[in-house]
Design a protein that fits this description.
By secondary structure, this protein is α+β, with helices and mostly antiparallel strands. The protein is 33% helix and 24% strand. Strand 4 and strand 5 form a beta hairpin.
């Protein structure tokens, strides 16, 4: 960072730390103890849709890599497009296989990054549910290297802010949480929510 950048208040973007995803299994233990949420076995990586042969090849490689995993139980990785035009690569595992789900998310992010599609990566999420049927996602912001909880309410576009703040406090020692609440973007229509 140069002197002029300091004077003008510009900062460098935080480099993504994909290894932060590996903190999710221990955070899940804390989340269950503190708020009663358990993994659903669903995770997804969101990225800006890209056209072209290079991206299609990368997508096929990632899907083949994850589909080759015999522990998956025959459930293929899915590609879905949401109503906002973003793509989601969805991985499903049995709920007790959160570490394997995290490996899937890490593999997708790493493959996209290595093949030059890092700028298109937006976020990754792991889905959780409590006994009352409330849904929650722990969302990893790729460009910020931080997590935040997202808890949608019912079928409309409303969120349970109190629950999100409760989860943030409970996971303070487990995950690097995004300090700027303005960056806790709603992921309406995200898989598993």
């Amino acid at each position: 960072m140069g002197f002029l950048d300091i004077l003008l208040g510009r900062t460098r973007p935080v480099a993504p730390d994909l290894d932060a995803l590996f903190a999710l299994p221990s955070a899940a233990v804390t989340l269950e103890a503190a708020a009663g949420f358990r993994p659903t076995g669903l995770g997804a990586v969101c990225f800006a849709t890209v056209e072209g042969a290079a991206f299609e090849q990368t997508h096929r490689e990632v899907q083949a890599l994850l589909d080759a995993d015999t522990e998956r139980g025959g459930v293929p990785v899915e590609l879905s497009l949401d109503s906002y035009g973003y793509s989601w690569l969805i991985s499903r595992r049995p709920p007790d296989q959160l570490p394997q789900l995290v490996n899937d998310l890490h593999a997708v992010n790493s493959s996209m990054e290595v093949n030059g599609f890092g700028p298109q990566l937006l976020c990754s999420l792991a889905s959780f549910e409590d006994e009352r049927g409330r849904r929650l996602a722990l969302v990893y912001l790729y460009k910020r290297g931080t997590f935040y909880p997202f808890a949608p309410l019912g079928s409309g576009e409303q969120r349970d802010s109190a629950l999100e703040l409760q989860v943030k406090a409970a996971l303070a020692d487990d995950l690097r949480t995004e300090p700027d609440l303005g960056r806790w973007f709603p992921v309406w229509g995200a898989p598993g929510l």
